[in-house]
Amino acid sequence: MDFTTFWPAGPGAAAAAVAITVLAAFVKGATGFAMPMVMISGLATFLPGELALALLIVPTLVTNVIQAFGGGLGRARAAALRYWRYIAIVLVFIALSAQLVSVLPQSWLFLALGTAITGFALWQLSGRQVTVPAHLRIRVELAVGTVAGVIGGLSGVWGPPTVAYLSASGAAKEESVRVQGVVYFAGACVLTLAHLRSGVLNAQTLPLSTAMVVPAMAGLVIGMQARGRMDEVLFRRCTLAVLAVAGVNLVRRGLAGL
């Protein structure tokens, strides 16, 4: 597919793409996730879905490097070791499902996942708690990791299931952000390679995706400054609020495709 055919010639579309990227990176900087969700939702309103997916790949990879390793290699390694099973299963299913992006219907997957995530976030925001019992942790990690990997390979979005799992596990603010960074960085590497193979990321789309790194960095820095001013309670509420929006957005995408 020649994506240059679909790229708008006017500066308005380019400005909109930059603004969406800045917003998406700000949300990621503040809460640790949702950048791909915001980008794919916004960009897909005026660009073909495969091009919107291509544009988010490189800035997602770069910002996840910063999120994962900003606290040092030692802390990133500790996070990776603690959640290695979850990371491994996410990577496997991203690689597998990315090859099905053009043939597998996504509507029912989005609808089911969005409903579950929205319900979880609203339940937590109401003051009720959902926790992962210690004896079920491995099973829950594998189940949630599988779902996150499948939807990640299909859409470039695997943050909501990860955040839901970390929230239910009771992870603190900095641990949550660091673990997310490691998970997303590893997943972004696999997603990049998978879509180089699938053709979504190619000679036409790679330069466009790389150009989105600049606005992404600006939004990320501002968002990280905002996160630094949050206490644990406010961070958790902000994270759950964004998670609820993410869930509603997935439901919207599922219904739109029926």
TrEMBL record:
<dbReference type="Pfam" id="PF01925">
    <property type="entry name" value="TauE"/>
</dbReference>
<feature type="transmembrane region" description="Helical">
    <location>
        <begin position="108"/>
        <end position="126"/>
    </location>
</feature>
<keyword id="KW-1133">Transmembrane helix</keyword>
<feature type="transmembrane region" description="Helical">
    <location>
        <begin position="208"/>
        <end position="228"/>
    </location>
</feature>
<keyword id="KW-0472">Membrane</keyword>
<keyword id="KW-0813">Transport</keyword>
<keyword id="KW-1003">Cell membrane</keyword>
<comment type="similarity">
    <text>Belongs to the 4-toluene sulfonate uptake permease (TSUP) (TC 2.A.102) family.</text>
</comment>
<protein>
    <recommendedName>
        <fullName>Probable membrane transporter protein</fullName>
    </recommendedName>
</protein>
<dbReference type="GO" id="GO:0005886">
    <property type="term" value="C:plasma membrane"/>
</dbReference>
<feature type="transmembrane region" description="Helical">
    <location>
        <begin position="179"/>
        <end position="196"/>
    </location>
</feature>
<dbReference type="InterPro" id="IPR052017">
    <property type="entry name" value="TSUP"/>
</dbReference>
<keyword id="KW-0812">Transmembrane</keyword>
<dbReference type="InterPro" id="IPR002781">
    <property type="entry name" value="TM_pro_TauE-like"/>
</dbReference>
<feature type="transmembrane region" description="Helical">
    <location>
        <begin position="234"/>
        <end position="251"/>
    </location>
</feature>
<feature type="transmembrane region" description="Helical">
    <location>
        <begin position="138"/>
        <end position="159"/>
    </location>
</feature>
<feature type="transmembrane region" description="Helical">
    <location>
        <begin position="83"/>
        <end position="102"/>
    </location>
</feature>
